[in-house]
Specification:
Bound molecules: zinc ion
Distance between the termini: 44 Å
Strand order of the largest sheet: 2-1-3-4
Number of strands: 7
Strand content: 5-15%
Number of helices: 12
Largest sheet: 4 strands, parallel
Helix content: 40-55%
Length: 242
C-alpha cells in the first residue's frame, strides 16, 4: 500500500502544480487525508478512494488545462505494458515498447524520443527524471485490465481515436491489393473480405477481423460523445497477421 500511496502523492503533486498551488506538500497531505476519510466513511479500500479523488480532480477544467497542453503523441510503455502499447497503436498513437527493457534504458530512450512514459511501477516514478518531470510519466494502477488501462490513458491525456497504426510495430497501414496478397490471406478470409492493409514498416498484413471490430468498439466507447474514431478509408488492424 505504501508504494501505491506514494505514487498517488506524486500524482496529486503534479495535479497541484498544474494549478500553480503554492503549498504543494500541504495540499498533497490534505488530499491524502481526504481520501482516507472517504475510505473510512464508505468502507472502501484506500486505493479506491485515492483513485476516485484523483480522477475527480483531473476532470476539473482548471486541472485539465495543464494536461491538455502536454497531450503527448508518443508513449513509451514499460516492460509490463506490452498489451497497452499494442492497443495504443491500434488507436493511432506511437507506443514504443521493448520486452525486458531495464529502467535506465527505458528512461534514456524515452528522453531521446521525447516520449511520455507509462508504467505500473511506482518506484520508477520516484526516479529523479520523472519526479522533476524532465521526462513526462504517468503511473497506472497495476490491477487494471488492458481496456481499463487504455480508458485511463485516454481520459488522462484527453486522447481521441486516430487512424489506426500497425499493432505490432506502430507503422503506417496502407491499403493492399487483394490479388497481389492472395498467397498470404487465409482462403476462408479471402472468400468474404476484399479490404486488406499492409504495414509499411514491417510488412504485416491486416484485415478487419473480429479482433479489429472489438478494438474499434472499445475505442468508440472511449471517444467523447460517441463520435466514431477517425478511420482512414476503413484501415484498421486485425488480430491476425501473416
Ligand atoms: Zn508493422
Amino acid at each position: 500500500m505504501s508504494r501505491i500511496l506514494k505514487a498517488y502523492e506524486t500524482r496529486y503533486r503534479w495535479l497541484l502544480q498544474q494549478v500553480r498551488a503554492r503549498h504543494l506538500q500541504r495540499g498533497v497531505d490534505w488530499l491524502v487525508a481526504r481520501a482516507r476519510r472517504m475510505s473510512a466513511d464508505r468502507k472502501v479500500p484506500l486505493s479506491q478512494s485515492l483513485t476516485e479523488l484523483c480522477e475527480r480532480l483531473a476532470s476539473r477544467p482548471a486541472f485539465r488545462k495543464g494536461a491538455a497542453h502536454a497531450g503527448p503523441d508518443r508513449f513509451y510503455c514499460d516492460a509490463g505494458l506490452g498489451g497497452l502499447a499494442r492497443w495504443l497503436r491500434g488507436a493511432g498513437y506511437e507506443a514504443l515498447w521493448e520486452a525486458g527493457i531495464d529502467d535506465d534504458e527505458l528512461l534514456r530512450r524515452a528522453r531521446q524520443t521525447q516520449a511520455t512514459i507509462l508504467t505500473t511501477d511506482s518506484m520508477l516514478m520516484e526516479r529523479r527524471l520523472l519526479r522533476d518531470r524532465i521526462i513526462p510519466g504517468y503511473w497506472l494502477p497495476p490491477t487494471l485490465s488492458i481496456p481499463e488501462q487504455l480508458a485511463l490513458v485516454f481520459r488522462e491525456f484527453h486522447l481521441t481515436a486516430r487512424v489506426p497504426r500497425c499493432m505490432s510495430c506502430g507503422g503506417e497501414l496502407r491499403p493492399g491489393d487483394k490479388e497481389a496478397l492472395r498467397e498470404k490471406i487465409p482462403p476462408r478470409t479471402y472468400r468474404w473480405l476484399d479490404e486488406y492493409f499492409v504495414c509499411v514498416s514491417c510488412g504485416k498484413l491486416f484485415w478487419h477481423g473480429t479482433h479489429w471490430q472489438r478494438i474499434q468498439k472499445q475505442l468508440r466507447s472511449l471517444t467523447a460523445a460517441g463520435t466514431a474514431p477517425a478511420v482512414n478509408g476503413g484501415a484498421g488492424p486485425s488480430g491476425r497477421a501473416t
